[in-house]
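Why 2-dehydropantoate 2-reductase? Reviewers of the renewal asked for a concrete example.
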Amino acid sequence: MAEPVVIWGAGAIGGTIGAFLRRAGHEVLFVDVVPEHVAAIREGRLHIEGPVADFMTGGPAVLPQDVRGRHRLVILAVKAHHTEAATRALAPHLAEDGAVVSCQNGLNELTIAEIVGRERTIGAFVNFYADYLAPGHLAYAKRGAVVVGELDGARTPRLEALHALLREFDEDAVLSGNVFGYLWGKAGYGAILKASALTNDTIADFIAAPERQLLIRRLVQEILAVAAAEGVTPLGFDGFDPIAFLRRDEAAIAACMQRMETFNRGSAKPRSGIWRDLAIRKRQTDVAAQLAPVRAAARRHGLATPIADALVRLIGEIERGERAIGPEAADALARVAAQH
Ligand SMILES: NC(=O)C1=CN([C@@H]2O[C@H](COP(=O)(O)OP(=O)(O)OC[C@H]3O[C@@H](n4cnc5c(N)ncnc54)[C@H](OP(=O)(O)O)[C@@H]3O)[C@@H](O)[C@H]2O)C=CC1
Ligand SMILES: CC(C)(CO)C(=O)C(=O)O
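Here is what the prediction returned.
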């Protein structure tokens, strides 16, 4: 039997990628902590629905404690605040010559590499839109960028093989020599998503709102200044142009905002996963965990991140029920942005 691709965290992102790989005929082992979801996948009731694809599949699926043996390819797709625990749990099941691929938001590769080693970590960046609706039931709402790259930018046989595999999920998947450029680009774009989750606005409406323009610019610029200090050239995707923000080129920023609004307008997933965690699933988000390495890098370079700091505080207040989602929360962040 061929070696399985292990999907560790089989929710919206991992479950959707795994379903496509199964449909393409690959061996896949799904691993997740939600017993009902694991059972549904094992019973062939993994349903991908939405405008991009609609099909039913399934396959071997287990809880983390039931994983056996050692595997050469693990796609990690848990939220950032679960990365460390998930990586520690998968580490004994990772082959000496195996690799973990982070299909996540944030700079999770840094955490993964600390646990399993840099040579057993491959970078990835995903910007497609998906939701976990119920056990076995995932919505694939919108295609978006999919990128893989070695952490040192090398083009290796294992990276080429991974790229070929992910092209079975999305034929436009990119093999990049600068995966951290994409991840820092998403950190900039993702900051807008995080701020939009303070409100019930759709992503498109938030991007288009006149009263959010200054906040968006200052927030993205604050994050990308850290990328620049790290010596990373952030890369654009799906309409986002980080260089426009870094250069403070107002015409290019306006054009970028227009493209991002168009990209998000009418999406079957109109709001971020963070908003969904806060408003629908009523659970902790990964905002603090995603921003932790960005804020840590800023401190290393002597940079302040007052807007990101306030964003983490405001999201935490919503998580703890101390503040409601709504325009007032974004107004509070905008006031911080206006001071910097
Ligand atoms: N959804 C989207 O459209 C996009 C998401 N991303 C990023 O992709 C990553 C995955 O997000 P998403 O798929 O949306 O999240 P989901 O919550 O839908 O899926 C993650 C799954 O992993 C499970 N899980 C949590 N801890 C573990 C663990 N230790 N071992 C195994 N499974 C675990 C979760 O269970 P439980 O729910 O109980 O925690 C959940 O079923 C995140 O970093 C996210 O920011 C990036 C781009 C788009
Ligand atoms: C909005 C989306 C799907 C892509 O940018 C995302 O990353 C999220 O929901 O966290």
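The pocket of NDP (ligand 1) is lined by residues 8-9, 11-14, 31-34, 37, 64, 77-80, 82, 85-86, 89, 104-105, 126-127, 129-130, 132, 273, 286 (CB under 6 Å). This is the kind of structural detail the renewal will allow us to pursue systematically.
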